[in-house]
Amino acid sequence: MKTRPAALTELLGGGADLCWFRAPGRVNLIGDHTDYHEGFVLPLAVDRDCMVAARQRGDGRVTVRSVEMRADGPVDVAADGSDAPEGVEPPWGRYVAGVVRTLADAGRGPVGIDAAVSSTVPVGSGLSSSAAFEVAVALALAHAGELTLPAAELARACQRAEHLATGVPSGVMDQVVALFGRAGHALLIDCRTLAAEPIAIPDALAVLVVHSGLPRALAGSAYADRRAAGERVATRLGLATLREATLDDVRDEPRARHVVTENQRVLEFADALRAGDTAALGQLLLASHASLRDDYEVSTPELDLAVDLLVAHGALGARLTGAGFGGCVVALVARAHLGDVARKTVAAYRTETGLKTDAFEVRPVDGAGPVTVAAGA
Ligand code: ADP
Ligand code: MG
Predict the structure, then answer these.
(1) What is the DSSP pairing of strand 61-66 with strand 317-320?
(2) I want to staple 318 with a disulfide (CB 3.0 to 4.6 A). Which of 19, 59, 266, 310 is the partner?
(3) Pocket test for ligand 1, best of 46, 92, 137, 214 (most atoms within 8 A of CB)
(4) In the chain, what's the furthest Cα-to-Cα distance?
(5) pLDDT for 220
């Protein structure tokens, strides 16, 4: 099989003048649906990424080809950001147009590029292939247009690009961790300030991802509804965001209660990770899943089953990860038991559901940046 650099070089008809970048996907250990309420999250950048190769072109066009969406042919938009993202076809080109637009807003000159991407982040699974794609394309565009932005501003620009592309008012976690990830560490991110504190994940603990076998469904409108419900509660309480709410404020409001208790769990999880308290980590994962299932109502019977099976087969704890409504579950597992837990969980899940599933370890890696690709690789 061809390497990714070879596939990208071939798509671009040769390689000597190409610039290379990568941006990782992520798995969120804890803290879901808190980022857009300026709360806390604790994800890690994972060893699956979107790679991009690009060269400048002189005609003010941005063209992007995707190895994964090869059949679609290239996306082609104006480099000055004048193309409205929501109208671009094929739909993945909307992310490209979104990033071109938001970087133009940030002062990027209208320099065109010829680019190609290839990603090992599974699409639509909750591991944020979209942020990996946006950030990789953004790095290539910023480089060609000689735009230097602080990483936090680049993250915000990519988040706005996703809003333009999808119409979903998603939070900023995915773009921040794609840029700030640290090898061997998870990141405690304060989504108000975007301060990101790396916290080491001990080698004795493995992060296991189990796919429910079902893509994320209905996420767009249900996501917007939930965000709006939380914002209404904050407004009624006279608060700028749910970040400032206390448990007493929201005791009878399940959606807001999830956000408030989840923020607390993220901070407790960070403490337990620093202290090496694995029992507490497992309990917090399970409490987070229960809150997403019962209070926020974004789980599915399949995600619930995957969590139950993981725990029954020896995981320390597990929870749905990402927006919910399908996609993946994340578990912490003692490394010594990793193979056993993964194998038994997958077998039992297949027997009970008949769904095609997959379980794989993810390792924490550094955030996005340039890549050196040897000639002829
Ligand atoms: P997730 O971020 O959980 O993987 P999303 O629905 O948010 O799921 O994002 C998936 C979308 O991102 C894809 O449908 C596609 O539009 C875009 N995308 C991700 N990776 C690629 C890629 N390699 N090539 C083209 N588009 C991609
Ligand atoms: Mg996404």
Answers:
(1) unpaired
(2) 310
(3) 92
(4) 62
(5) 73
92-138: pLDDT as tens digits? 999 999 999 999 999 999 999 999 999 999 998 999 999 999 999 99
Question: What interhelical angle do 278-294 and 301-312 show, nearest 10?
Answer: 160
Which residues neighbour ligand 2 (ion) by CB within 5 Å? 128, 130
Q: Which atom of ligand 1 is nearest to the CA of 323?
A: 3
Please identify, by atom number, the ligand 1 atom nearest to the C-alpha of residue 119: 23
Q: Are 23 and 95 spatial neighbours (Cβ–Cβ below 8 Å)?
A: no
Exposure letters 88-123 (e unless 16+ CB within 10 A, then b): beeebbbbbbbbbbbbbebebeebbbbbbbbbbbbe
Q: Tens of pLDDT along 32-50?
A: 999 999 999 999 999 999 9
326, 332, 337, 342 alpha-carbon torsion, rounded to 10°: 10
Pocket test for ligand 1, best of 123, 168, 325, 328 (most atoms within 8 A of CB): 123
Ligand sitting nearest the alpha carbon of 132:
1
Residue 217: what pLDDT?
A: 72
